[in-house]
Amino acid sequence: MFALALLNLHLITLLNDPNLHLVHMREAGGEIHQYYICSTMKWPNLARRSNRTFALMSFVPRLRTPRFLRWIKDKDWQRFKSDGYMVIRDVIPTCLATKAALDIAAFVGADIRDSTTWYRGSVENNGMVALHHAQSLWNIRQYPTLHQVFSEYWGTYKLMVDINRCCFRPPCHPDWPTLSRGEIHWDTDPRTRGEGSLQGIVLLSDVGRDAGGFQCLPDVYQNLETWVAEHAQREDFDFFNPGLNDRKTLQIEGKAGDLILWSTRLPHGPAPNHSTKPRIAAFVSMGPPLDSRELRTQMKDWWSNKQAPVYWRGLRGQLEIEPGPPAKLTKLGMKLIGTLPWD
Fold this sequence. Notes:
This protein starts with a strand and ends in a 7-residue tail after the last helix. It has helices at 74-83, 94-107, 135-141, 144-154, 218-222, 224-231, 293-305, 331-336, and strands at residues 4-9, 20-26, 32-38, 45-50, 53-59, 85-88, 128-129, 160-161, 166-169, 198-203, 214-216, 250-251, 259-263, 268-270, 279-283, 286-287. It is an alpha+beta fold and 343 residues long. The chain is 22% helix and 21% strand. Strands 6-13-10-15-9-7 form a 6-stranded antiparallel sheet. A 5-stranded antiparallel sheet has the order 1-5-4-3-2. Strands 12-11-14 form a 3-stranded antiparallel sheet, with no helix packed on it.
């Protein structure tokens, strides 16, 4: 255990400090409390919210910040800096991951227990699924721990979520020779200079090697400028088909509920699925939003109308409006689409 020293009560305005980052802690009895960690203090201070009361607490100086308060560890930051990705384990509870996996399978007409139903989706999509608004997907997006991880990455809890797609990749099959064979790509042009942005995916099924999971090329990421200078200068260069499919890749194995984060500058893609089960996952990312009323209105409309964002439309099988009522959002969920303010 660790010791906390209660100092005194402060007003909510203390939480407007941009150096305060939101975390969540499950205490004895299962109750979840919210905390704000101050990153500029020599010994991290906590502002705890409980019953609308805010109290400033600090760790006794001789103790380090408890490890379970930070989801992104030093080794994760080092891996992201050197190789362009990190894996955070057990972010989403198995029950939430399983429900989302079942909803995705149902959307493509598949029964996970019946392999004869796994190939009913559009082969042209190569396992990408145009499902955005199932309640189970929103339950993942608005899950507090997921928000905490992205808050730690960006250094702020004021984030907006991307309403992204899913994937359902069945095992390779001779009747569908182009499906689930694996490939490597970029989603943004690697010739664009800068730090890049952040992408993420939540595993909704356990994934072993050669089971259709996430694969990448850290060696290209580490020498990206050199690679671009040698291979990406021609006018017809296609960053979504850069000719890297024959390279030996690093495959990430994981369990349902794990989160993989990677830089947009990392070449990546799905590994071939030579297993006996479909690989199921949901793309999810969060980032500091633009201060745009138009964007907040669009996010609210996409959620309430159950429509895909305009930039995620176009897949075969895409529905103009997904069936059923809008997903129920928590206060955190409403903030993540910009309908409620963070302050």
